[in-house]
Write a structure and sequence with these properties.
It is built from eleven helices and nine strands. With about 290 residues, the protein is an alpha/beta fold.
Length: about 290
Amino acid sequence: MRAFSRFILETYLSISDLNEYLDSKRGSGASIGFVPTMGALHDGHMSLLKESKEKCGITVCSIFVNPTQFNDPKDYQLYPKNTEKDKKILEETGCDCLFLPNVEEIYPYDEFKQITFDPGSLGDVLEGAHRPGHFAGMASVVKRLLDIVRPDNAFFGQKDYQQFLIVHKMVEFYKLPIEIVKCPTVRENNGLAMSSRNQRLSAEEREKASLIYKTLTWAEHEINAGRLNFETIIKQAMFDLTEKGEFKVDYFDICGSNTLEHVDFRKDNEKLAVLTAVWVRDIRLIDNLLV
């Protein structure tokens, strides 16, 4: 990844101050790119910021650990936080503006936690089935942030593919004039998808977790080769992850790439997604490949 020259990072804690800054940039004709995050930034986030900088005049990053999308309070408490380190990363990446609100700024009233959008079956499967309430919380905070920032483009990583699909559907539902851009998953040298949660893995666990990506790529190869039926591929993948990796597996599935509905076989070279969620000790990791 190419290096950016060091930028002066504008940091705003309040919506009013952020809007004043962004309105001045819009007035001069700049387009706004937005990367919403929960902090603990890594190269995956940096790739989103790079995409925004290449496409937009001004890049805004938000850091807000949203309590409403954690169905496990312990997971919320353990989520890694290092704001000063994150600020340095943003400066080095060339981000123009950081929005760093507290909970009261985002949710001054309880009604801001509720929205009328319903993702339907897209929100009921996979992550939705294993993390009740997660997507309701995610959608409400993303809608809130989009309403605040009013970007021209918002950038999301493919690692959270189900989230990307739901946000895209939500933007269409509300007819928001925003392009939702999907960016490729950034991986560590061993293939492990970069995640803020990786910071909690030991070096041994991080290496062991490379089996997740290896299993996904094996499944992708078998789907394209057409030698095995999908049921056999899923059973073998689950066996490898649970027996070889000694992981707890929430799901490993082959789905239509637009609906995330389970499919038993491929029709006319349709686009598919292979998705999994795996527990390494008490750390939950998700990953996927589009086939």
